[in-house]
């Protein structure tokens, strides 16, 4: 056996992922959360990404396309982005937004949750350990 054989990586077998990954984007006001989100949504990655935003911003093209109805009810809009990403943007707070989004499972591969700059991410992250029913469908991929 040669040294070259030791350096070769084995072929990986793709695994069926039954749960949808969710990443929480958090940070102080002005830290670049929405800039990061816009970067991810404009890259050529071939993923269908659902976005949950719980803050209102001024001047951002993604945020301008979303609003809450006059009665404060959940409003969502599906956007086809130039990179082929089918982006579902939801403006709502809490577990209810994720549960409502999961009723459309299959339309997206990944969830990004952008918090307000004033939010403590601890309670948000804890729902993924405390809500067993929710965790059967999604998993916290990163924060």
TrEMBL record:
Species of origin reads Pinctada imbricata (Atlantic pearl-oyster)
Q: Where is the CobW/HypB/UreG nucleotide-binding domain?
A: 21-143
Q: Which residues form a coiled coil?
A: none
InterPro entries associated with the record:
CobW/HypB/UreG_nucleotide-bd, P-loop_NTPase, Zinc-reg_GTPase_activator
Q: Which Gene3D superfamilies match?
A: P-loop containing nucleotide triphosphate hydrolases
Q: What is this protein called?
A: CobW/HypB/UreG nucleotide-binding domain-containing protein
A GO CC annotation given for this chain: cytoplasm
Q: PANTHER family recorded for this chain?
A: COBW-RELATED, ZINC-REGULATED GTPASE METALLOPROTEIN ACTIVATOR 1A-RELATED
Q: Which domain of life is it from?
A: Eukaryota
Q: Please name the CDD domains in this protein's record.
A: CobW-like
């Amino acid at each position: 056996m040669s040294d070259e054989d030791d350096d070769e990586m084995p072929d990986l077998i793709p695994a069926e992922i039954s749960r949808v990954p969710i990443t929480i984007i958090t940070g102080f006001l002005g830290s670049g959360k929405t800039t990061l989100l816009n970067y991810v949504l404009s890259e050529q990655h071939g993923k269908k990404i659902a976005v949950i935003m719980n803050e209102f911003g001024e001047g951002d093209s993604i945020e301008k396309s979303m609003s809450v109805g006059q009665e404060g009810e959940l409003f969502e809009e599906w956007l086809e982005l130039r990179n082929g990403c089918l982006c579902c943007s939801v403006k709502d707070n809490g577990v209810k937004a994720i549960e409502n989004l999961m009723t459309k499972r299959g339309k997206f591969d990944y969830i990004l949750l952008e918090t307000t700059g004033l939010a403590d991410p601890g309670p948000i992250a804890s729902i993924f350990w405390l809500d067993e029913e929710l965790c059967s469908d999604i998993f916290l991929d990163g924060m």
